[in-house]
Amino acid sequence: MRYVQLRAFHQVAISGGFSRAAEALFLTQPAISDQVRKLEEEYDVLLFNRNKKQVTLTTQGQRLLEITHRMFETEQQALELLTESRALRSGTLRIVADAAHHLLHILGAFRARYPGVQVSLRSGNTETVISSLYSYEADIGVLGEMPAGRDFEMLKLNSTPIIAFVSADHPLSGRKSLTLGQLAQEPLVMRERGSKTRKKLEDLAMASNVELKPAIEAEGREAVREIVASGAGVGFVSAAEFGHDSRLVPIVIDAPETLMDEALICLRERSGGKLVRAFLDMARSMSGD
């Protein structure tokens, strides 16, 4: 087994094809194909299912990818250790968040201290955050519920209740609170399945023998906000994420309080990376933990 063979396999697996892997490694496609073929022949295994349109991992390939993820991450950490001062002057920190505003104050302070570091920020629900961390497509996640298990290092940012909200000209805009039964009579605008806010709200309703059925299902918090602002129905969000929008009015849910925890998380095995550690340390110092 040779390093170049594992590197070729790993790049094909994460790129989804031989051509893209060749481009990433600045090699020709035949060279990449040859390295993977030799690896498969030497150990008499099939690592990829190949057809004309796509390349997918076999079961053995998926197991090997889990190992090479750790292998190349360890290599990256070794490189960061040897080039520590350079790592904090350059490089990219990839963050995926279910709500970016929870870390805006941390981002500002981080960029002020490490102006040479590029920060990539994208949005996603809880499932997207966790899968992105496991697949090494993100370094740090921000999500609305701290996952169980010991795979992650976590830093709690805040806990706030779930509230309802309507447009400022909605007939319910003058109400201070609504019961779950009253909400069930209204057209509801809810996040996609996989959203922890929706899951917690539905669990609360079920415990109260109330069924909350969405009239409109929208992907992403901003989509829900814009639909509700148009007057199309009642939306739900954690109080910390409601923000300030003159078009919208918050309404307390008259039910047992259901809190949304917002946390920074990263894979424990990657928490030693210089950029990840610098960001977590700064977040911890700003949160007072």
Automatic annotation (TrEMBL):
Q: Which InterPro entries match?
A: LysR_HTH_N, LysR_subst-bd, Tscrpt_reg_LysR, WH-like_DNA-bd_sf, WH_DNA-bd_sf
Top-level lineage group: Bacteria
Which ranges carry the HTH lysR-type domain?
1-58
GO terms, molecular function: DNA-binding transcription factor activity; transcription cis-regulatory region binding
Keywords, A to Z, come to: DNA-binding, Transcription, Transcription regulation
Q: Does the keyword DNA-binding apply?
A: yes
The UniProt similarity line reads: Belongs to the LysR transcriptional regulatory family.
Quote the PANTHER family the UniProt record gives.
Answer: HTH-TYPE TRANSCRIPTIONAL REGULATOR (PTHR30126), LYSR FAMILY TRANSCRIPTIONAL REGULATOR (PTHR30126:SF94)
- State what protein this is by name: Transcriptional regulator, LysR family
Q: Which organism is it from?
A: Mesorhizobium plurifarium
